[in-house]
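can u do me a favor
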């Protein structure tokens, strides 16, 4: 691992913070672009009231000078506006108020309380909350800017919400990317958007919730990021870990990886070569990864999000303290956060790819990194 990070912060605490180490010097960071990515995470049809309160902004406190990275650790803070409304319950000094004991199935509430010996599940749920994905998006935005300086660009889109499926093949077109960013469902199809809205409205009405599938694309990657030499260094494994590290992501697919019903000649991508293009493929069923490495085709990974576990019509549960049967507690919640999850997944993929790029090409400084990439491109042609 060349790039590393740590995050800290509770959902309703004063703020969230992150430290990133291993970033090369000389990368121009567009701070407005980081805030733009944070705003993208906050959007989406089916979100709860919290997103109306927050307008996330990253405050950089270390590692940048004059808009350029210095190679030193980068530190950032995202303040929680909603903390003002919760500070009696969750400020570092507070311990009081009504205990959260009607633990919610599908959350960290019960296993987290048992593991750490809490009599109030708030001690678990505040940190377990997906609010922390704001830090992942800010870090991913830095990674995305580094990747862009190296000719790599990423995008994401929602592929399904509940049973409403957007049947797509290949990365979105330029117009499609614009449509995705303008869409409340993060899709490039008005028909899919309409079908997804029906599903979210229905589940909201039922007091339930809904999950879905997202995909992330990265184009412009050189072949050979990641490696086959050891299991934990395979890029497939590292992408899987990054994506499964996001709350509510329960499965990951690389390329057409789940199509185990297809025969080999339908699944693998024939290899061609021309002096102009070098090695190339006419299909991309592998999703740009072979043998734990990028193969030069666009990367395509999908992540599968379970339905949101906090529901207006709660499931039966047991009180943490009395051990009596209760209904799980409801606390303000999203009904669907699949569009937001797409932005988060894009961010963690960006981070993983930036790490793999730095591992392959090194460079304390952006110019060295770019020169190493040019040299490699000439060698493999
Ligand atoms: C962007 C995003 C937003 C989420 N919003 C909520 C929410 O409002 N309410 C909720 O109960 N769960 C929400 N979740 C899911 C929970 O955080 C997650 O299911 C829970 O922490 C348990 O973790 P697990 O699903 O990975 O087991 C959200 C997840 C993501 C990625």
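np, heres the sequence
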């Amino acid at each position: 691992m060349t790039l590393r990070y740590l995050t800290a912060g509770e959902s309703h605490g004063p703020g969230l913070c992150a430290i990133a180490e291993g970033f090369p010097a000389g990368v121009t960071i567009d701070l407005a672009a980081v805030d733009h990515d944070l705003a993208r995470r906050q959007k989406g049809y089916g979100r709860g009231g919290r997103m109306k309160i927050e307008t996330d902004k990253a405050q950089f406190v270390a590692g940048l000078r004059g808009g350029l990275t210095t190679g030193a650790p980068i530190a950032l803070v995202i303040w929680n506006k909603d903390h003002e409304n919760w500070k009696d319950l969750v400020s570092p000094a507070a311990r009081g108020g009504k205990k959260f004991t009607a633990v919610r199935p599908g959350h960290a509430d019960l296993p987290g309380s048992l593991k750490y010996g809490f009599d109030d599940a708030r001690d678990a749920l505040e940190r377990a909350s997906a609010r922390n994905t704001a830090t992942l998006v800010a870090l991913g935005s830095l990674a995305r800017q580094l990747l862009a300086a190296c000719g790599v660009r990423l995008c994401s889109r929602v592929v399904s919400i509940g049973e409403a499926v957007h049947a797509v093949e290949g990365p979105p077109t330029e117009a499609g990317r614009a449509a995705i960013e303008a869409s409340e469902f993060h899709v490039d199809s008005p028909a899919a958007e309409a079908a997804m809205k029906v599903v979210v409205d229905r589940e909201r009405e039922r007091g339930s919730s809904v999950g879905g599938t997202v995909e992330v694309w990265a184009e412009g990657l050189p072949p050979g990021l990641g490696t086959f030499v050891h299991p934990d260094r395979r890029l497939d494994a590292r992408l899987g870990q990054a994506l499964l590290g996001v709350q509510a992501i329960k499965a990951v697919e690389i390329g057409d990886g789940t199509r185990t019903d297809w025969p080999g000649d339908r699944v693998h991508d024939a290899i061609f070569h021309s002096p102009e293009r070098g090695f190339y493929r006419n299909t991309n069923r592998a999703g740009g990864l072979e043998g734990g490495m990028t193969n030069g085709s666009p990367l395509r990974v999908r992540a599968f999000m379970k339905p949101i576990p906090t529901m207006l019509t709660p499931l039966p549960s047991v009180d943490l303290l009395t051990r009596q049967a209760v209904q799980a507690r409801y606390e303000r919640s999203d009904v669907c956060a699949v569009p937001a999850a797409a932005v988060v997944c894009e961010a963690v993929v960006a981070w993983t790819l930036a790490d793999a790029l730095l591992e392959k090409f090194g460079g304390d400084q952006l110019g060295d990194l770019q020169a190493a990439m040019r040299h490699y491109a000439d060698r493999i042609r």
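Residues 338-361 form the longest helix (24 residues). hope that helps!!
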